[in-house]
Design a protein that fits this description.
The complex is a heterodimer of chains A (about 500) and B (about 475). With about 500 residues, chain A is α/β, with parallel strands linked by helices. Helix content of chain A is about 40%, strand content about 15%. Chain B has 15 helices and 16 strands. Chain B is elongated and about 90 Å long. Classes of the chains: A alpha/beta (about 500), B alpha+beta (about 475).
Amino acid sequence: MDITELTVHELKERLDKCEITSEEITKAYLERIDEKEPDIDAFVTRLDQDAIKRAKEIDLSKKENKKLGEYAGIPIGIKDNMCTKGIKTTCSSRMLENFISPYDGTVVDKVLNQENMINLGKLNMDEFAMGSSTENSYFKKTRNPWDLSRVPGGSSGGSAAAVAANMVPWALGSDTGGSIRQPASLCGVVGLKPTYGLVSRYGLVAFASSLDQIGPITKDVKDSAILLSLIAGHDEKDTTSIDIPKKDYTLDLKNNVKGLRIGVSKEFFGDGINQEVKDALQQAIEKYKELGAIVEDTSLDIAEYALATYYIIACAEASSNLGRFDGIRYGYRTKNYETLKDIFINSRSEGFGAEVKRRIILGTYVLSSGYYDAYYKKAQQVRTLVKNEFAKNLEKYDILLTPTSPITAFRFGEKSENPLEMYLSDICTVSVNVAGLPGISIPCGLDKNGMPIGMQLIGNYFQEGTILNAAYTYEMNTHFRENYKPTFKGGNN
Amino acid sequence: MSRDDYEVVIGLEVHAELSTKTKIFCSCKTEFGGEPNTHCCPVCMAMPGALPVLNEKVLEYAVKAGLAMNSSISRDSKNDRKNYFYPDLPKSYQISQFDKPLCEHGYVEIEVHDGEKKKIGITRIHIEEDAGKLNHDDYGRCSLVDLNRAGVPLIEIVSEPDMRSVEEADIYLKKIKSILEYIEVSDCKMQEGSLRADVNISVRKRGQKEFGTRTEMKNMNSFKSISRALEYEIERQISVVENGGVIEQETLRWDEVSGKTFSMRDKEDAQDYRYFPEPDLAPIRLSEEYIENIRKNLPELPETRKQRYLNEYKLTEKEANTLTASKYLSDFFEKGVKISKNPKAICNWLLSDIARILNEKEFEPEDIPFTPEDLAELIGLIEKGTISSKIAKDVLEEMFENPKRPSKIIEEKGWVQISDENAIREIVLKIIGENPQSVSDFKNGKDKALGFLVGQAMKETKGKANPQMLNKMFQELM
């Protein structure tokens, strides 16, 4: 038995029966990382020594019947934009290359300190979560386990690739415009973006405050439901987190979609969507019908404006959120200065990469006096229209079904020369963030190159249970994970 | 043309630090002082990932201020970000309020010199966070950032340009300070920077309808420098206009030492703050009951208290005005009255001798080193004849120098009044024996001689003899 092939719920069963120890699990993963990391490059920071030490402690505590979290001793990987006390949090940026947070973010605290999971390391990402290929990392390019010459998607590319390559059993990602779902889709794993406000953002380095959410990236849907149950919940340190009762999302997994109303919006099956992706989605739709769901065509015509709206709002908030990286208190400071202004300008010019600077400039522009009304204010108005249009559709349908990404994993450099083309790869996911809804991506096939295709299911506010059950039912009746495995082919880039 | 041909137009933006125990967006202490960067946490230091949580006390205090200044309170308000880079601003944006302030359309009434009343409009009052402080090293080598003050809650009270003289601006500012003290939302310590003002000023020819171009002086923190700076700036603006020049709209820096204003930044640096709604905080919605509850529990304001002093204690208009202008002084007065039951005497001591000493020492009423109980005791000692009013003044001086209970001071200094009949008789006999001429003058009807003799007796006893008893005894024995 290869331990790293197992899902977390399978691991937990064996842990509970004392068939396996946390130390054995952790060692198996560290060996797997040793083997695959040279190909994948998913980690910014590895924590091998710490992980083994923690695993031994937890095994001992278990023997002594000390009170531990339900998932104590299960390893996890964390995207490098979540603050971890005493461990570097770099956001894959030169700006925070040596930054060590003095505190644990709320979600990190939950998984590491309350659940007693084992942190295997911090995972690579696009710098400050800005990008769709993880090529914007200052440190390294992460490769897609299905084809090493291709990107893993982004911005949570390190998290998705690590899960796909069995280097971590599950991982935390963050999603501002698709940064969990799109890399999950490109890497053939499950990625869930919760409803805005379901999971605390405290300790998540902010990109766009009104859009960011932390969510799970997992091998299967059940693990997604488990990890979501562990991280969801009101946090008094984040006033945008909603105070609703905690729940166990695994109870929603019924393997039954009879009578489930699914809307398929034609706008997400247009010219920009690759034919193989459309075909795979069509097959998934047939599967749902076969399983007893009611599938209908619908329209979300505001969706075409969502991308522009998204980039205006996200960049505006980012331009302000990233102001704190000024070279004064922490982070990168230029050596090249005489005046205060030099410190600000040179530290930021040298510390940020091109994409981050592009978005700061865009955001600064749309908030400037004289342009505010035409861009930012207009975008907020369109945002309301997007919400309304989704609300109308979600009265008629329990879930909406779309592709996660218009294309499968592309090659390195293929899109990084043209930012606008890169932005278009978010076309299916951003409107979900703009509306604040939950969305999940699950694999639903491979293209002719053997690259995974992802299906996105969108639910109503706080109806994570509904999309998880729909995803679970599909998974239980199609067995993607059993049929296909990453090949680690190629790799001459 | 002379200065009289010009009208002065002044508007004030007053920043008051609120005296909440904790900061506006985190639970760090607001206490002044403390080792640099000890009242800080990830939130007020703007660590990556940290988020603000609005302190509800700040809302309550700001609503209190709004109601006390006759404002309408917004049921639907929000926070906005004001973006700019400066080392004392850790997030590189200040959380403030832009287009939906908490309070609007208020006014305060001031009394100008001839007792005439004038309303000064309050455009708006909004909540925001204070920045940290830069400590410049003495040798100009570096500046050090102290974030203890970062995130201390402020209200900004913006007036209409309704003031027409330096004096009105001064009275207005004192009134704002007094109201904030009465409702106990700010300690208003100008020397600690917890009350500061940005001053806007312009001049125009009398009869002209449009305002002149204004200049602004920021962060003024004493009444004296505000008045001096305004006087200087009025003269400067008038002379620019008189010489055919044009006033430039700009921010000026007042230099206390040279007594001049200087241009602070050039126009190239014109700030665009890129205000936008703070996405980390929910909009502020206040219910009717919430506001009404604060209104009902609003403490007595200076105007009401003044009326009460006129009716209850029969003080003069001037006395009541002066006492109630400072909440501290007025509270001191009331505590004293409760014990001594002699409001007139307490008032007199506070407004004459105590006021004189405060003035000499450049003290605020808050700096009085003794308690109202001490003052009441002092007055009681005079009433009982234990000391004379003259000795009482010495006791008061001593109470400022080495604060102790008055009875203790008298005992230690041996200042108890001589009221023993035999002791008085002895002294009188001695003085009569030494001054035969005055005795015969008195007998010949020269009343002035009695005064002289009493004076001699007081001198002999170092002022401790009871003057009434001396008088009586001299007349008896002569």
